[in-house]
Amino acid sequence: MTGLNRYRLVISAGFGLLLLLLAVMVANLAAQMRNLSLAAGDNTQWSIAQLDTEFANLNAILTRQLAEGGLTENEVQLRIDIVLSRLDIVNSGRAAAIFGDSAEATQLIAPINAFANATIALLDKPGPLVDADMRRIQQMLRDVRLEVRGIAVLGVRLGAEQSEARRAGFARQLLWTGGVAIMLLFLMGILLQLLVRLLDRAAQRDRELLTSSRKLASTVAASLDAIVTSDDEGRIIGFNAAAEDVFGWRRREIMGQRMEDTIIPHRMRKAHRDGMERYLATSEPHVVDSGRFEMSALRKSGEEFPVELNITTTDVAGQKSFIAYVRDISERKISEQILIDARDRAQSMDKAKTRFLTIMSHEIRTPLNGIIGVLDLLKTTALTPQQERYAKIATASSEILLEYVNEALDITRIEGGALQFSPQDFDLPQLMTSLIDVLDPLAREKNLSLSLDVAEAMRMRFHGDNNRIRQILTNLIGNAIKFTDTGEVKVSVTGIHGPEKTSVRFAVSDTGAGIAPDDQEHVFEDFVALAQGVGRQRRGDGLGLSIARRIAREMGGDIRLESEQGRGSVFTLVLPLDRCDRKSVTDREAQTTSATKAHTCSVLVAEDNDINRRVLRDMLERMGHRVTEAVNGEDCLRKAALDRFDLIIMDISMPVMDGIKATRALRKGDGPNADTQIVGLTAHGREEYRETAERAGMNRFHTKPIRLDALRTIFSDVEGDVQGAAQDDQCDDVLSELIDVLGFEKVRQTGHRFFDELHVFVEGADAVEDASDLRALRDAAHKLTGAAALLGLVQVEARLAAVEARAEVGDMTAHTACLAALRETAEAARRAFDRRVAQAETAADT
Questions:
Q1: N or C: which end of the chain has fewer CB within 10 A?
Q2: What pLDDT digit, counting tens, does each position of 373-399 carry?
Q3: Of 328, 352, 387, which residue sits at a domain end?
Q4: What's 36's DSSP letter?
């Protein structure tokens, strides 16, 4: 019926359009007839021609009046007014329409209008018209007679032409109307044909419905799915040919039998009966009319097999019937099991791949450690320009290889859900400035401008994994430089401060070739490298942007791309970060500068690889430090028991005893290096050993290969401990004097009593909840500060002084931080005190 209604709508619309067109045509024809009638009865041309007559009459009157007299002034003025009114008719109305924009008419009328103006001026002057005025008017009249005669002739000619044009237009309208009438008749014939076809189609539809109903019965019989129909008592009343093939029953055998006695497995028959009774009683569908589901069926041979089933109901004359569409899915189940087995094998292979990459990364990092370390040392020596170029090429190639190893490990961590982050406080402007400083030489090599703009609101400290942020931004900025041949690369940092977090936006824009819209998402896929000159990605592995986006999303952010071919690209990294204090870069640098001084440190290097050990030794000695070597964990423990070191660099994977076990042994003991800072080295991924290394007692750890810059950073971080060692020497001098005066036992008891009182003080101070109670701690802190100074505990004394100062001003926030630092310092100072007293007592006995 939808098709028929559509045809009816089309035919009705067609008739409506024809009627509308006919009405428009009739109205247009009537308008043309009115115009023609008006043109036929118009006296406009006569009025124009009469202008010449009126001018002639006025000339005759003036001539007679000047010659004979006898006319009054009013009679002369009346004749002049008639001429002027006739001229006004020519200048307006239909006469003006006849002339239109004719240049000739404009040229002729201008002197006539000048005559009229001059005449009106003479009439309007005071007093009556005198003979001189009349002679003047007569002279002006004679001057424009030719123009008057010309305008009259022109008006007649133009009027005739326009009348002819109107008649021609009317003729065309008649022809067009006749043509449209013929077209309307033709269209009406077409619409009649459509009506006939509509009737034929309706008859055809009836025949098709009859044919379709006949085909439906044959379709059910020929269906590839088994179709079984039963009545409300479960007796089979329909069984197609496919059902015979699926269940093994012949139609004549099974018709009239119950389903539960033939095709339903024995273990499911009770549930089938209960379900049928519940549905017939409540009409609530559980299996019936609930879509496709899987279950087991029974063949005539007694074999159970899996089927996919869909049961619907029909109600004819109050008699309910059930129609079951059954599909044998035995082969599909077998295929699914094959796929599951293949998946399990693939997962097993993926785990083997991950383990292989992990092992290979360790094996590759170990020689890389030696290669890059030697190259760093080589660059510190006097080299020829050619040797410097060779060293740079070798370093760059080694760094690229190391980058590939790191990225392969990142991929395995992300896929395995093992990617870990190390959030810490960092200064965002300082991070961005260091990035630009590192990458600016690459930009200058290509004559590119690399600029940084950090919004004022973002010039503060945040809490997050700055190493991962650096990794992502290095990739984005490096790509922008790599794929920009001319122009500039801009890096901007903006953001929005929320109630708890800040959404920081890092935008890296360039003026490179850009990326086609179809390729913009492909550059973020694994192992996708666009062809040279087609897009940006020229790496061989195609992992850089993929890993960068994955890491960003793991951190709760994302990387977006906006690009237009020929106009460059903008990569935007958006990350949610926690805010810290609002210290500026200048404050941070001032603190760092004031705390950094040059010291010569004693370093114990525990490394089983001879090449790496020698390279590390050369790097440390070139930095001015003293180095002692150990080949494994046990060797490290032996040498750590003999001398105190400012720093221990410990390889995590070593034979005999690894670095983790050696670190635990050092921290549990009371030897001279129980509190020494330990830096772990690993050729494995950093995340795999982070938690284990921290639990063992390592202060920090680094992934091989370790570079000179990294070593300088490490020594800068442990500078405070080096200064603390100098303070320990001062403590030793004070203790020596006390022991000489009081003896070993008295000094030991005094020290223990002090540390016990300090412990009670710390516990009490930790329970303080408001500023009023905080001020009450001031006197106790001052008292303990003096006792610490008496025992030579310089670091404890400084911590207590800080607590006292915060208590004085009632600063609860700073008090909590100072108290935590005091607790940590006190524990270390107590162990150091006992160790020094014991060492002094042992030395005295020997």
A1: C
A2: 777 777 777 778 788 777 777 776 676
A3: 328
A4: H
